[in-house]
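Readers outside the structure-tokenisation community will struggle with the description of the input data as it stands. What matters is that the chain and its backbone geometry are given together, residue for residue. For illustration, here is how one protein appears when written out as sequence plus structure tokens:

…
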Amino acid sequence: MQLMLIMRDDDRAAIERRDGDVPTMMAAMRAYDERLQAAGALVAAVGLDAPANGAVVHFGGCHPS
């Protein structure tokens, strides 16, 4: 099974990311991916499947829907 996790920012975090140092952010993400790979938690970083094969999960309370 393959999963993709997307976390959405609030408005403040989105502005900070937009105005941030992209090369530094990319280096941090690359280092994070390398740590995940070393731990065996990241086994692939591949392209996405067609949107029709995906799902959206909403967390508005205690239980996802």
The radius of gyration is 15 Å. The mean pLDDT is 81. The CA atoms of residues 12 and 18 lie 10 Å apart. Helices lie at 11-18, 22-39.
